[in-house]
Amino acid sequence: MKGAPPAFDPRVVLGIVVFGAAAFLATLYFIAAGQTSGGSAGSGHAIARGLDGYAALVRLLEEEGHEVRVSRSAASLDEENLLVLAPPHSADGEEIAEIVSRRRYAGPTILVLPKWIAFEVPARDPVGAEDGWVYLADARPPQWVEDFEGRYATGLAPLALDGDGAAHWQMGARRGAMPDPGNLQVLEYGTVIPLVTAAEGSVLAGYYDDGGYYPVLDEAAGLPRADPEADDLDTDRWNFTVVADPDLFNNYGMADRERAALAHALIDTALEGQDMPIVFDVTLNGLGANRSLLTLAFTPPFLAATLCLLLALAIVGWRAFRRFGPPLAEARAIAFGKGSLVANSAAFTLRTGRLHLLTAPYARAVRQRIADALHLRRPDDAALDRAIARRLPGAPPFAELAAALDTAARPQEILRAARALKSLERKLVR
């Protein structure tokens, strides 16, 4: 007779297991990478591909060999790196000032001020826009700069230049045109040493003159090298650079080779000759992410629980491959053999509560086996006790044990007395 087919196709089961394992590993990867949500929402940040985004600058720095990272974690704001902040118009100026103040002895900071009011190109628009493209609707300085002035004296003003092709920005010997000369945003006032200027010396980008020792930036600004031994200079403080017009850094500006080279030069200048990571923050743009659960699992004090879980999984897997024994099979309701018959009878006796009826037959059976072992012709209790005393001095008399079994009433007492008789028999018969 041909066997019945399996309930499940082995190939289907194998495919389900492989797919589930792959999906689980992918989930762990995306959790660890912090890619559990869409990353290109909005514009004006380091991931955005629109005109007001900075994805092109990130790509340029990566191609030039820099260690570049886009951070969704607030922890990066206090790490040793070159931090690039590009907050939106809706940012909090006091919060930004607090971040900059905390970083003065952690690493250099570049603040790119927003200018453009942008909105995403509608999907129904006939221009054939790609994902993330935007329209630049208006140029407007951020209102939060007024709050920012409390700690860092900074004011912005629009500067309209003609579009006749004249040089609209300058950094040392570098010169070039801005992408939109009619909408420039410059620093109106502040204790800023200019690095990039526009017409009439207006400052497009510069670093704060705050008593720090910045020889690389001083050289880029055309200033004489300061004396590091001067008492009024803080050699441990890092520079704080402000880019007033974002078109020097954004994708709109990266369309020109000279402006791209200018942005790279500003980044290198802010690094002050140090080899450190460049981090573009997007938490101020609302793209921050909570700490990775996978990373948190391997961080004390949760590391101990994670190790215990991994150890338990390893033990379970090991026991799954090395079974305790043969698989369990359903037992018969009525088993074969004399032993099974006795077991069934005993269970029936217990259920009916007639265990006391077995005490006398059990005592007679034990008496006969002991008499046979001692070769007694008349196995009365007195003869048994004399023979037992000669064979096992100090052993309890048979008559005493049999009487205890006969007077036992409860199941526990009956079993205890029966075990005593069985123990005496085992000593004599062995």
TrEMBL record:
This protein's source sits in the domain of life called Bacteria
Instruction: Answer yes or no on keyword Transmembrane helix.
Output: yes
> Ranges for the DUF4350 domain?
52-267
Q: Which organism is it from?
A: Pelagerythrobacter marinus
- The membrane spanning regions, by residue number, are 12-32, 302-321
- This one is known as DUF4350 domain-containing protein
Annotated keywords: Membrane, Transmembrane, Transmembrane helix
Supply the InterPro entries for this chain: DUF4350 (IPR025646)
